[in-house]
Design goal:
Layout lengths: L2 H10 L1 H9 L2 E5 L4 H17 L22 E8 L2 E11 L2 E10 L8 H15 L4 E6 L4 H9 L3 E2 L11 E6 L12
Parallel strand pairs: 4-5
Antiparallel strand pairs: 1-2, 2-3, 3-4, 5-7, 6-7
Helix pairs in contact: 1-2
Amino acid sequence: MTLTSVKKVFVGKGAASEAAIGQVRVVECSPRRPDARRCLRAYFDELARRFDDGFDPARSISADDEELTPPEGLFLIATLDTEPVGCGALKFHSGEPAEIKRMWVSESVRGLGLGRRLLAELEDRARARGVRTVRLETNRTLHEAVGLYRAAGYREVAAFNDEPYAHHWFEKNLGSHPSSAGARV
């Protein structure tokens, strides 16, 4: 199924959209790979367009390549027919909650459940590393993200960092069992 056919499926949703999202492959990779870089560029470009005062990654809390590479972290990329359509990352901190970073889904596949799938995959991988709690922060203009995190069981908490672009800070206790959201759509 091509990206063009996914866009057509978007109109119909239902079983066809589930089949489309089932064609998406999520894998761990280096954030240095060209397709990972493409996702990160698209993510930064979207933040720059949507944030009231733009977005400069250099002003944001770091999530550089080394921090998103084992053992310090990991980077996931979602592809549809080799086309990168989403990404997400984890930063691990010994004895502290892990951070979810760089969550992005291409506009071409939004509404199909890929954000939920990426989030569940990140949670499952954090849990597999013994992480009990994950945290993330987001900007108020990212309404879809705020809704996703709340629907996935994240609770809003007091600011736990000084991210200049954040208006919401969230946390989720992962417990020890795979997430029910981990079921693949």
